[in-house]
Amino acid sequence: MADQDDSEKTEEPTHRKLEEAHKKGDLVKSQEVSTWFVMIGGATAIALMAPSTASSLMGSLTVFLAQPETIPMDAEHLRRIWLNVGSSAFMSMIGPLAVLVGAALVGHLIQHAPVFTAENMKPKLSKISPKEGLQRLFGPKSLMNLAKGILKLTIVGSVSVLIIWPERDRLALMMTWEIAQLLPLVQMLALKMFAGVIAVMTVVAALDYLFERMQWMKKQRMSIQEVKDEYKQMEGDPTVKAKLRQIRAERGRKRMMAAVPTATVIITNPTHYAVALKYEQGMGAPVVVAKGVDAVAFRIREVGQEHEVPIIENPPLARALHATVDIDQEIQPEHYKAVAEVIGYVMRLKAKIGGRGRR
After folding, report:
1. Kind of pairing between the strands at 287-293 and 273-278
2. Which residues of 155-192 are buried (b: 16+ CB within 10 A; e: fewer)?
3. Which of 68, 77, 162, 288 is deepest in the core (most CB within 10 A)?
4. How far is residue 41's CA from residue 49's CA, in Å, rounded to a whole number?
5. What is the model's pLDDT at position 20?
6. Which DSSP symbol is given to 11?
7. How does pLDDT run across 158-215, given as a tens digit for each residue?
8. Burial category of 309 from C-beta neighbours within 10 Å (exposed 0-12, middle 13-18, buried 19 and up)
9. Which of 264, 274, 355 is nearest to 308 (CA)?
10. Spans in the chain with pLDDT lower than 70
11. What is the pLDDT of residue 4?
């Protein structure tokens, strides 16, 4: 069943899927990249700090080698000696250790930003299942890691042997050398080994990171159904969205129709377009309170007739206003003159009708 599920995951992961994986602490991580940075840190520590560290340790340990007979053997003196030696050794090693720890942190941080999550701390039955444990120990991933480890040891070991082998004659004589002669040779050989191993590990780390990223991306793949479900979660169900748009449009039409009786004039084309304008004393410019085409235009005219709103036929102006002005917005300056003529005509018509009524 798991194989079937994996075979169905043919789609590349979405941005949201990758973000969720990051939040859960599921990240691309190459151990070889971290090892490469630690080796760089080790080489740096040897190159910059080895002489001073060795001198400090040598000064602390000289008494044990040069004058062991002068060391008091009572408990108090031995405690003080070991305390001094321990503190000197710690102070001598704190610099190289700090470099190594810093390199290890950089090796992790350069691959991904820190993520704080309790996901891996949650109790899971799979963690105590013997079957799951055996699959983790002898599964494809474990066998792949074992193969990579053996290959890496083989390559690194071969490079180390190739570097050290030309120095085999000097290595045989090292037992007869003084410490002052020995330390520079050890430092030189160590740096040569680090340089060769780092050169090889650069290629190994780069290939391993690419491999781990490919495996991680493959693991994050989604099925078509998962992509659809995520789209519904993010964008909403298309059916529900369409229904909501329909409801909002219906409510908008009702509010618009409720504003038609307050209009000063309705300009039509005469059958396909209708735009209702409102203008009162003190307004900067007429405002469109309703507009529509075909059935909506017919309804605007119908409501206007019911409430005795003047209806003026002006096809070019009706089409222009419908195309350029939204509801509850003032008309554009280029339409001022034409609209002013219409509203002026309506005002004069109302004044004439009012005058007849008074007579």
Report:
1. antiparallel
2. ebeebbeebeeeeeeeeeeeeeeeeeeebeeeeebeee
3. 288
4. 11
5. 82
6. B
7. 888 888 888 777 776 776 666 666 677 777 888 888 888 888 888 888 988 898 888 8
8. buried
9. 264
10. 1-7, 51, 54-71, 114-139, 172, 175-182, 234-237, 240, 354-359
11. 44
Q: Find, among 349, 271, 338, 250, the residue nearest to 308 by Cα.
A: 349
Q: In this structure, how many other beta carbons lie within 10 angstroms of the beta carbon of residue 113?
A: 9
Domains parsed from the chain with CATH numbers? 2-232 (no CATH), 241-358 (3.40.1690.10)
Rounded to whole angstroms, how far apart are CA atoms 139 and 136? Answer: 5
Instruction: Enter the tokens of residue 269.
Output: 């084309």
C-beta of residue 150 within 8 angstroms of C-beta of residue 157: no
CA–CA separation, 286 and 327 (whole Å): 11
Helix (H) or strand (E) holding 288: strand 287-293
State phi, psi for 209 to the nearest 5 degrees. -65, -45
pLDDT at 266: 92
pLDDT at 32: 85
Tens digits of residue pLDDT in 22-63: 777 778 888 888 888 988 888 888 777 776 776 666 666 666
Tally of residues, the chain: 359
Give the other-Cβ count within 10 Å of 131's Cβ: 8
Helix (H) or strand (E) holding 313: strand 311-313
Q: Tell me what pLDDT residue 277 has.
A: 92
Q: Tell me which amino acid residue 135 is.
A: Q
Q: What is the CA radius of gyration of the chain?
A: 42
Q: How far apart are the first and last CA of the chain?
A: 93
Cβ pair 200, 159 in contact under 8 A: yes
